[in-house]
Known about the structure:
With 689 residues, the chain is of the alpha+beta class.
Amino acid sequence: MRTPEDKSREGLARKDALYEELERRSQVMDAILSSTPDHLYLYDLAGRYIYASVAGAKALGMQPSEMIGKTWRELGLPAEIMEPFEAKVKTISATGESVTGETQFPTVEGVRDYEYILTPVFDSAGGIASVLATVRDITEQKRAEMEHEHATRQAEMERALLEAVVNYTPAGILVARGSDLTVQMVNPAYQAMYPGIEILGRTMADIWPAAYLSAAHVITRVLETGEPYKGLDDKFILKRSPDGPMETGYFTWTLTRVRLPDEDAWGLLSTAMETTERIRAMEEQERLLEQLQDSNEKLQAKSEEIQEKNAELRVHNEALTVAYRNTAEARTEAWKRAAQLTAVIDNMVDGVFVCDAEGRMTLVNDAGLRLLGLERIEDAQQALIGAPELLRIRHLDGQPIPPAELAMSRALNGYTVMQQECLVYNALRQRDIYIRISASSIRNHNGEILGAVAVARDVTEAIELDKMKDSFIAVAAHELKTPVAIMKGYSQALLRPRKGVSSRQYEMLEAIDRGSNRINAIVQDLLDISQLHIGRLKLTTEVIDLSALVAQTAERMSRTTDKHCIRFQSPGSVTIKGDSGRVEQVLVNFIDNAIKFSPTGGDIDLTVAVQGREAIVTVRDHGVGIPKEKQSRIFQRFYRAHDGTPYDYGGMGVGLYISKEIVERHRGRIWFESEDGKGSTFFFGLPLP
Length: 689
């Protein structure tokens, strides 16, 4: 039988076991609370910390033991955050209801965003004993939400931009879906090419039966293989309206297989740009070129005819001289031959003018009088010898030709003049005409000058055809500018989002971008040539720091080459007045030529210096140089000194021509020094203000 002592010992043992279990559970609970990433704080009703989790204390740069039994003021926590927090704790103490919210709090890792819930803790009697604050760090969640919102706005902006590009681009864009290729989307530019036909919602075969039939094999190949197709100036027979006639059109177009949203099958993306007008313009150009070539051939034939007749005239003159010296019969024969020659001269289409050694006009044929708009030989004497200003004889640039430099005057001085071109005012036609004149001396058997003969031809039509060619170049350059800009814009737009573009497609897009850059440079050169030819190259005058401009250009050009060292020297700031863009264009031409024609690399030296009232820029290289026999033509339009040599790197040969025109329009001068195989130095000088 158990004694009271036994019962007492058993009760104490059970109590010890209970305490041990409570201690174990407390340790487990501490371990769980210490491992949670949430911050846990327990306050008594006086605002003192009863408990703080490891994560919560660590965020404040403390240990849990440092916080127990202290208020937030004693711990030095920020009042602007903790006072509203303390007010909420008091509200919970009064109402017994939980409170949630968000706040920002400075921690050892910086200011962080938190969400919290304040929960009352009740004692065994049902009263509120303390308040538990559960705090969760939502900084990364907030950042993710902001990034998601930003990405959403960015996607919406890109969608709106793409929609604007599709709707307002001059290139036609069409998307077809399904096995029958029903048009799902078409932009205004595509619809505008067929104003009388409703495209949206119909099949491609129904819209363009003839064109679809001719392109069906291409469409099938694109859909089966996924390889894009591009047609350049392809010819199609089509109708632009239901009741319209069949007509021929030319298009540059593409086909690309695309995966449409919510579709298992592939869709088809087609872009198109009508080039009918450009093709017709090219055909007209070819016709004009053929006409020009035909005119040149006729001129050449006429020139040969004149030479033959001149040779015949010399033979007959010699024969007449011999006949006159020998006998009266010979003189009669000579007069006969002279009459024949007179008849030949009178019926020539070219003007013939003959004068004696004193410059008196002895013969002018009818063609010559018509050419000058005169009626009598005396009028020709007065106009050509006595008062040449009546005919307003000028060079092609409009500058008057001094009397001593006229073809007839030079021939009387023993010179032979070949194909001199000038402007003459024809009073009967009341306009300027272009003539091409050749002249030579008339000599006796001893070589003495007896007079001069000149043959002139009206070449107005040929020169105006040449001007038409220049005008065509200007129009062609202008018409090419917009399509090139579109092609470049699309290629760059497609290059930017690299994601989703294969390496092969990316290389193709880069090739398109490089090609468009080269075409754009050619078009700009053609536009500059056109503006120079008609005298409309505009300069915007402003104050320029020439030294800074040269330094910036040298820095930019140095990034285009790994083999050259571009060095620049200047005494300081040198100020001029001019068009900074055009001056930079001259610098780029000089430096680009220095790089291009120094294929093995080396130093390229740039200097700016002041000499008198002039700022002089120098670009020196140590490359291949320029052959001496080609240096006189280096600034001519379309001339390439290294054409057909190992150093022929392409180009149109207009860079130095444009540079010369730009410098001269700044009232400056341009020149160079070069030795074949040893390099070149190019200079240009601009006046100081």
